[in-house]
Structure to design on (416 residues):
C-alpha cells in the first residue's frame, strides 16, 4: 500500500519529458492543421453567410423597387381612369346642352310655323267671309236694290264691325 | 495498480525506471503522435467520424475551456490544452483495456503533469504581466495594506496547493475505481473460502458490480481529463488576468 502513494521521481521525469515533447510535436503535427482546417471552414461559413445576406438584401431592394413601380402604375391607372371619367362627364354635359338647345330651336320654329299657319288661316277666313257676305248681299240686293249700292253698304258694315270687334281678328295684317 | 519496474536506466544522477506505466504512457504518446496527425490529415470518408470526434474535442477545449477562462490571449495555448486533455484521456482509457495499466493512477505521473501546469501558470502569468506585475498581483486587489504580509505567503502557498490538489485529484479518481473493482473481485474469493457454492453464488453479483464500476470508470476517465484541463485553464486564466 505504501508503494501506491510513494511517487517515483524517475517516472515523474519521464512524464514531464514525454508531455513536453508531445505538446511541442503535436502543436505542429496535429493541432495546427486541425485548427487551420477549422478556421478555413469557419471563414468559408462566414463568407457564405455574408454572401447570402447580401443576396437577401439585394432581393429585398429589388422587391421594394418593384413595389414602388407597381404603386406608381396603380396611381397612373387611377389617374387616367379619373381623367377619362371626367372627360366623359364633360362630353355628356355638352351633348345634353346641345340636345336641349336644338330641341328649343325645333320647338321655337314649330311655334312660329303654327303662328304663321294660324294667321294664314285667319286671313283666308276673313277673305272668304267677306266674299261670302258680298255674295249673300249681292243675292239680297239683286232682289231689292242695285248691286253696287249694296256692296258698298256691306263693306262699310264690315269695316264698322272690324272696329267694334277687333277680337274677331277680321282685320287684315 | 502498483507500477511494475522492469529495469532501471541510469543517466548521470538520474535513476530512471522502465516500467509498465512508462510503457502505457509511451503507447498513449505513440497514439497521439502517429494516429492523431494521420487522422487529422486523412481525407478518407471512413475516418471522417474519428476526425470529427477529435475536432469536436479540440473545439470544445477552445470554445468552452480556454477562451472563456483565458480570454482571447489564450488562443495560443489551445494546442497545449488539447495535448493535455487527449494525453490524460488516452492514458485513462488505456487503463480500462485488458492488460493495460492506468498511468494516471500513479502519483508520479499526475505529479509530473501537475508540475507542468504549475510551470504553465507561472510562465503565462509572468509573460502576460511581467515578473514584478505578476508577483504584485498575486494578492487580490482591495485587501487592506496590513494584510499583505499575511496574504502574500498564503497566495504563494495557494499556487502550490492548487497544483498539488490537481495531482491528487486525478490520481485518486483513477485509482479509486480500480480499488473498488479489486474489492468486488476479492469478494468472490472471500466468500469462496466459506464454501465453493457460496463463492459461485456471489460471483454473478460481483461481476455485475464490477461491470457497473467499469462503466463508471469510463465516465470518470473523460470527466477527470476534462476537470484537469478545466482547472488548469482556470488557474492559468487567473494568473494572466488578475482582476
Amino acid at each position: 500500500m505504501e508503494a501506491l502513494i510513494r511517487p517515483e521521481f524517475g517516472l515523474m521525469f519521464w512524464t514531464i519529458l514525454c508531455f513536453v515533447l508531445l505538446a511541442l510535436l503535436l502543436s505542429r503535427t496535429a493541432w495546427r492543421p486541425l485548427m487551420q482546417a477549422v478556421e478555413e471552414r469557419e471563414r468559408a461559413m462566414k463568407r457564405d453567410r455574408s454572401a447570402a445576406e447580401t443576396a437577401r438584401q439585394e432581393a429585398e431592394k429589388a422587391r421594394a423597387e418593384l413595389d414602388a413601380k407597381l404603386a406608381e402604375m396603380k396611381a397612373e391607372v387611377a389617374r387616367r381612369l379619373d381623367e377619362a371619367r371626367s372627360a366623359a362627364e364633360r362630353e355628356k354635359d355638352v351633348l345634353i346642352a346641345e340636345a336641349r338647345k336644338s330641341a328649343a330651336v325645333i320647338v321655337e320654329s314649330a311655334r312660329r310655323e303654327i303662328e304663321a299657319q294660324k294667321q294664314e288661316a285667319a286671313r283666308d277666313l276673313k277673305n272668304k267671309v267677306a266674299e261670302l257676305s258680298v255674295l249673300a248681299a249681292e243675292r239680297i240686293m239683286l232682289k231689292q236694290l242695285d248691286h253696287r249700292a249694296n256692296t258698298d253698304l256691306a263693306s262699310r258694315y264690315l269695316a264698322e264691325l272690324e272696329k267694334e270687334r277687333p277680337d274677331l281678328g277680321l282685320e287684315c295684317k | 495498480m502498483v507500477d511494475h519496474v522492469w529495469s532501471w536506466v541510469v543517466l548521470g544522477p538520474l535513476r530512471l525506471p522502465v516500467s509498465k506505466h512508462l510503457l502505457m504512457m509511451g503507447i498513449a504518446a505513440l497514439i497521439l503522435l502517429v494516429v492523431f496527425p494521420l487522422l487529422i490529415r486523412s481525407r478518407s470518408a471512413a475516418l471522417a467520424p474519428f476526425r470529427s470526434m477529435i475536432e469536436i474535442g479540440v473545439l470544445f477545449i477552445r470554445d468552452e475551456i480556454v477562451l472563456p477562462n483565458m480570454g482571447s490571449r489564450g488562443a495560443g495555448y489551445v494546442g497545449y490544452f488539447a495535448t493535455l486533455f487527449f494525453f490524460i484521456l488516452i492514458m485513462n482509457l488505456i487503463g480500462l483495456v485488458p492488460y493495460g495499466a492506468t498511468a494516471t493512477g500513479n502519483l508520479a505521473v499526475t505529479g509530473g503533469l501537475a508540475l507542468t501546469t504549475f510551470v504553465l501558470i507561472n510562465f503565462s502569468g509572468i509573460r502576460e504581466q511581467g515578473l514584478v506585475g505578476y508577483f504584485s498581483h498575486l494578492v487580490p486587489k482591495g485587501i487592506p495594506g496590513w494584510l499583505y504580509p499575511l496574504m502574500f505567503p498564503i497566495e504563494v502557498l495557494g499556487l502550490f496547493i492548487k497544483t498539488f490538489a490537481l495531482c491528487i485529484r486525478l490520481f485518486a479518481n483513477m485509482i479509486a475505481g480500480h480499488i473498488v473493482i479489486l474489492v468486488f473481485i476479492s469478494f468472490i474469493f472471500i466468500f469462496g473460502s466459506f464454501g465453493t457454492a457460496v463463492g459461485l453464488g456471489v460471483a454473478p453479483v460481483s461481476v455485475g458490480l464490477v461491470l457497473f464500476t467499469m462503466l463508471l470508470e469510463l465516465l470518470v476517465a473523460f470527466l477527470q481529463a476534462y476537470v484537469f484541463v478545466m482547472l488548469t485553464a482556470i488557474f492559468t486564466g487567473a494568473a494572466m488576468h488578475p482582476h
In short: The interface with chain A takes residues 1-3, 5, 8, 14-17, 19, 21-22, 25-26, 29, 32-33, 36-37, 40-41, 54-55, 58-59, 78-80, 82-84, 87, 106-109, 111-113, 115-116, 175 of chain B (CB under 8 Å). The longest helix of chain B spans residues 148-192.
